[in-house]
Amino acid sequence: MPSLRKETLEEYLSSLYGMKVEVLSLRKLRGLEPGGEVKGFGYGSPVLVEIACGGKRERLVLHTMSPNAFGHERPSDRASCLLLDYATFNELPRHVRALDVGAFADDGRLISLGKADEFFLLTEYARGSLYVRDLERIAAKGELAEGDEERAQALADYLAHIHARKKEAPELYRRRLRDLVGHGEGIMGLTDSYPPDFELAGREFLEDVEKRCVAWRWRIKDKTHRLSQVHGDFHPWNVLFGQGVEFTLLDRSRGEWGEPADDVTAMTINYIFFSLQKYGSLTGPFEQLFRLFWGRYLELTNDEEMLSVVQPFYAWRGLVVASPIWYPSLTPSVRRKLLCFVDKVLNVDTFDLERVNDYLG
Question: Which of 239, 244, 255, 231 lies closest to 172, judged by CA?
Fold first, then answer.
């Protein structure tokens, strides 16, 4: 967190007010005497700012937010809260008025965001072919081509490499599991998205899945030693292959740190998904890729413990690929087998790579 300096604050306020603003004093509202500079005041200490502007004196309060384990672990979480404060304070009668919302630049300058409506992200353009095109080709031809095994191995190698980077931050691991179950993009968001009259996954089934996923969260939430660097949405629509095994990734999601099982299940559920559509079971070329991927990953990481934590992650990804919203054209047979997989995988203590077709019913 940069220091809050009078000169940078004056520059920002002068721009906001459209006239020269002089900062007369800065003082923490919680236990610090006035001074010309407030160093390292942190995210959670409101600062009383006295200014002179247009011949008048005013008092303002600069609010920031402290990182904590209550959904504010990441800077983006805290930004979300402050943006919401700005959008709502002035809509409530008798509430103190919000004048602006902004951010600290890395050089200590204050940047206004008050006139922002929606935000955008600008990225580079990457050339290549989505990995899902490989899977579609394999399904159409019913066989692997030269390079298919090498690509699956390269993806497993990559995950083993990034997952080797660990972090000691128990609150982030538990946050990731909380998001897995309760976030709008997670399990509860998926179950809420199923139509209420959906015959293959009615309310009773989805409620039961949620309850068992909550139980799984409690079962694995103390495995905080597993917190690793992750991609967070490592599926075939987010991998662009160039020549050979060279690839570029798209759309990293849900934070920098998480459970490695998230990435492994996001990719391998798709070998099951495409095989079901082609053959009605996990077999043929897709079974080869599934076994190759898992075998290579476990060989490099020795992470046998993952087989005891993948269950809620496979349930989540199973709910995604079985979804009538995301994949409306699936046959009832394929959808039924995916939902059976979700149901059965939550009942096993250790995921057995040899029993996938049993889980598919």
Answer: 255
